[in-house]
Amino acid sequence: xxxxxxxxxxxxxxxxxxxxxxxxxxxxxxxxxxxxxxxxxxxxxxxxxxxxxxxxxxxxxxxxxxx
Length: 67
Ligand code: F3S
Prior knowledge:
Blueprint lengths: L3 E5 L9 H5 L4 E3 L5 E3 L3 E2 L1 H13 L5 E5 L1
Antiparallel strand pairs: 1-4, 1-5, 2-3
């Protein structure tokens, strides 16, 4: 499988914080309380946590994209 990277759509993100609560090693929060992607490429070990964050974001702002 090709590598994939997390992406947050800044126009959709409303700062609900589920991403960095559920996967703090993969996401961080910026000065305005919005999620940022701290780990660019997602390895196999991080895939499950990334998928949980994607599923729980109320704004559907998070995606995994091929790199
Ligand atoms: Fe934003 Fe969704 Fe995280 S709204 S802060 S990407 S849970």
